[in-house]
Amino acid sequence: MNRALWKLAVAEARLLWASAAAALFAFCWLRVWLTSQLDMARFKNILDQLPADWERLSPVPFDQLVSYPGRIAVTYEEPITYLVMVVWCIARGSDCVSGPLGRGTLEMVLAQPLSRLQVLWTHTAVTLAGVVLLALVAHAGICAGVATTSVMVEPPPVQWTIPILQIPISLPTPAQPPERVPMSELVPTRQFLPAVLNYACLGLFLTGFTSCLSAGDRYRWRTIGIAVGFYVVQSILEVVGLASESWSWLRRLTFLTAYEPIAFVSTALRHPDTAWAVLRYDAEGRWIDLGPLGYDAILVGLGLLGLLLASVIFHRRDLPAPL
Amino acid sequence: MVLVETHALTKRYGSFTALADCNLAVRRGEVFGLLGPNGAGKTTLLRLLLGFLRPTAGRAAIDGWDSTRRSLQVRRRVAYLPGDVRLFRGMRGRDVLEFFAGARPGTDMRRSLQLAERLDLDLTRRVGYMSTGMRQKLALAAILSADTPLLILDEPTSNLDPNIRSEVIRMVAEARAAGRTVLFSSHVLSEVEESCDRVAILRAGRLVHLQEMSELRCQHQIRARLTGELPSVPEHFQGQLSIQPDGQGEVTIETPGQLAPLLGWLSTLPLEEVTIQPLGLRRIYDQFHAERWLE
Predict the structure, then answer these.
(1) What residue in A sits closest to B142 (Cα-Cα)?
(2) What angle do CA A68, A74, A80 make, to 5 degrees?
(3) CB A20, CB A136: distance < 8 Å
(4) Do B43 and A322 touch (CB under 8 A)?
(5) Which of B202, B203, B199, B201 is nearest to B215 (CA)?
(6) Interchain proximity B75–A3, CB inside 8 Å
């Protein structure tokens, strides 16, 4: 561990991270507030009017979205939330080798008694710390939004249970005016933690993939171009795979299949015992799917594979003089 | 005792050979110059020594450590100044010196600051706002302060004004006086001539000539106008002198050894307007590279 190298890596990252974190925190907070502004009944009406086919594009059935936690969980799949993590990971990942190589600073650093792996992993460690912190910042933004927002809720009808028969019946009482209720009473923020972890794992994958490209490249602009192109293609595969049953096999070809924060929040709310499961089983104990941690493991595994390849490539490659 | 050695060191990029069969041995404590035009293979050789490039064939070692397999050990013993210095543009000059002092344990920051002062550097300015020459000086201050047995300087005086060039040449001489070895590449023959103990001349990726500068400094060229017939050369100078009359009344005499024994004989010759000058590196260099311009 070299203190000067750490200081350099942090100094290079701090401005981008601070900007990304500020944007993410503000957006997540704002997104919760916007959720509170749209009445749940009106939101349900909107969903009811959407064509039935559109439900296929949603990671969870529409009826699971008709709740404040469900709607807030959508924050993790908003384009801005994606964008912040993608920009951080691609900007930093592309700057691990091809960036400083093109700028000519890499040879100044590697002329010192620092190993190539030390240089790569110090940079990557700062990037990954930034990924984890960004995921926590997103969660903090949501928590701040939940803590400072209230919603108008119609009180439930008064019910009475018939003795002996144990049948509940609603009593015809005069309509009660809606009450203002703190969002925190309706949204258990702890149930968002599987989504937070999934968001961080997405960042790890993108960092590993981009670092792998950067380790073998000479030009940062080309690394960024390939990484963005890959991301766009993966997004198209995801959308086409979701939109059409006959093309659903395409979803197996995209890493975005493993990024399902809304579904994981839904699982945490409806089946808390499987919120952190690696595998999911049906009532008879047969394996049916991966659990949230299983999908996270795919992203982490692919990300670490990318970083391992980056290490091997960078360790073995020639470092040409800067142009 | 040899500090830097290469054995049949070769680097090829596809069909292009950047360096071919380079055998070199740099002794401890000497200033060793690398001369050659652009593309001769100087920078490739230096980058192979540092382990930045993997050789296609052959091997290089510094202080006994293989440059490819034990690159970290090699770089502990080397301070390197690249030909095209690029520093961290967002940092101030002082931060750059602190980074390099921190990256290499044992580097004395006070020495970096002293060198910066000697090179007349403004350390409060950001690198992005420095001129090319200032960045070169900043890198020199960072590199020369490292306490390593070997200094590799790739064209260290490019982009520098004449005053600072002289200062850098003095610093190289100080490094040599302190027992350090300097490997020095340059296009400027006078600098190499002034500071180096030995010089290697490269051409198209091949090491074509090794020259001991002490031998070269003994060699002189005497030019004069003839006022009479040249007598025959005394027996004890036979075979040592090269005498070339130009047919227009002028003569050039070249001596490969010490000048003093020759002076007595010269004084008896029918010559006037006599000029005596060291043979110089230019003459040697042109033997290998002048034809490039004549072709």
Answers:
(1) A108
(2) 135
(3) no
(4) no
(5) B199
(6) no
φ, ψ dihedrals at A130, nearest 5°: -65, -40
Alpha-helix residue ranges (DSSP H) falling in A38-51: 40-49
Residues of B in contact with A322 (CB under 8 A): 84, 86
Are A114 and B103 in contact (CB < 8 Å)?
yes
In angstroms, rounded to a whole number, what is the distance separating the alpha carbons of residues B40 and A169?
96
Distance between CA atoms of A225 and A94, rounded to whole angstroms?
10
Q: Which residues are registered as beta bridge partners of A289?
A: A280
Mutate which of B12, B75, B135, B145 to test chain A, going by most A C-beta atoms within 10 A?
A: B75
pLDDT tens for chain B, residues 1 to 295: 899 999 999 999 999 999 999 999 999 999 999 999 888 999 999 999 999 999 999 999 999 999 999 999 999 999 999 888 899 999 999 999 999 999 998 888 999 999 999 988 999 999 999 988 889 899 999 999 999 999 999 988 887 888 888 888 888 999 999 999 999 898 888 888 889 999 999 999 999 999 999 888 888 888 889 888 877 888 877 777 888 888 788 888 888 777 888 888 888 888 888 888 888 888 888 888 776 544 4
Burial class (CB in 10 A: 0-12, 13-18, 19+), B171: buried
A2: chain B residues, CB-CB within 8 Å: 102-103
Identify all chain B residues contacting A115, using CB atoms and an 8 Å cutoff: 71-72
Q: Is B7 helix (H, G, I), strand (E, B) or coil?
A: strand
The helix-helix angle for A193-216 and A116-148 (nearest 10°) equals 150
* Cβ-based contacts of A312 with chain B (< 8 Å): none
- Looking at the partner chain, which of B75, B87, B101 has a beta carbon nearest the beta carbon of A113? B75
Using an 8 Å CB-CB cutoff, list chain A residues near B156.
Answer: none
Stated length of chain B: 295
